[in-house]
Amino acid sequence: MSERKLKVACVQLRCGDDVGENVRTASALIRDAHKMGAQFIGTPENTGLMAADGGAKLEKTHPEQDDKALPQFAQLAEELGIWLLVGSLAVKVSDGKTANRSYLIGPNGRIAARYDKIHLFDVNLPSGESYRESNTVAPGTVAVVAAMPQAKVGLSVCYDLRFPHLYRTLAKAGAEILTVPSAFTETTGKAHWHILLRARAIENTCFVMAPAQGGTHANGRQTFGHSLIIGPWGDILAEAGTDPGVITAELDLGQIAEVRGRLPSLQHDRPFEVKS
Fold it and tell me: Domain of 245: which CATH number?
């Protein structure tokens, strides 16, 4: 076992359309995670707001400099002396669009990294649910790896999980922990959540932190929950159910070098052509 240890936590939420209440609930659980010894704490996608639709979301969002939730989370990170991943906030970038933006905040209360969700969820599900994220969300264009003192962190959000080349890029850029804050639907979560997250950990020999929304929200939307912390061998270190709460795990970051020594696949990628 190495000396590179990091206690991490995923906060699971069930957010609604009241930004103030969402922030209060998340903040209380972040404090709980800190009391459990967590040094790096993550919250899910849509931590600030789970609106009924894109129009309702636009009415309650603001440009980053005017956002109501972000300063409170920055102040909390500084007060507790933690690294805090605010899984995502809806930040207005134009009259008709928001960015689905993930924030990594340092223990000094300053934003260490921002990441705008690149892949947007547009789909009609057999259950009758329909999602058109691109109607009101502007996609990001830049992959982000951020450095903490203990480890490098590769940022992503929810639907990005289905695009393995993003995570390969993050791992090759030095990421040791991949963050996947999410609000997976009940339907897709049951089918794919565990499999995809474990695959991203295994194929990139990284730890994965995936804080999630869970349960039936006030607007009737159902999210899968089951926040996960996964090791670089694909082993599940901690898992939540569907209710709000906290899961923790101590990461032995030395395991990454050990696993990569046994399976050096990141070094074995080769260029190739496709014939059809």
Answer: 3.60.110.10
User: What is the pTM assigned to this prediction?
Assistant: 0.96
- The structure tokens 């990454």 sit at 256
The catalytic residue among 10, 15, 45, 92 is 45
208-266 pLDDT tens trace: 999 999 999 988 889 999 999 999 999 999 999 999 999 999 999 999 999 999 999 99
Parallel/antiparallel/unpaired status of strands 130-132 and 83-92: unpaired
158 is catalytic: yes
Count of beta carbons in the 10 Å neighbourhood of residue 19:
22
Quote the domain boundaries for residue 135: 5-263
- Residue type at position 197: L
* 100 touches 116 (CB < 8 A): yes
Q: Is residue 151 part of a domain?
A: yes
Q: pLDDT tens for residues 179-216?
A: 999 999 999 999 999 999 999 999 999 999 999 999 99
Residue 62 makes CB contacts below 8 A (sequence gap 6+) with: 68, 91, 92
Has residue 238 been placed in a domain? yes
State yes or no: is 45 an active-site residue.
yes
Task: Report CA torsion sign: 251, 253, 258, 263.
Answer: positive
Q: Is 15 a catalytic residue?
A: no
From the list 10, 15, 158, 206, the catalytic residue is: 158
Question: One of 10, 15, 92, 117 is an active-site residue; which one?
Answer: 117
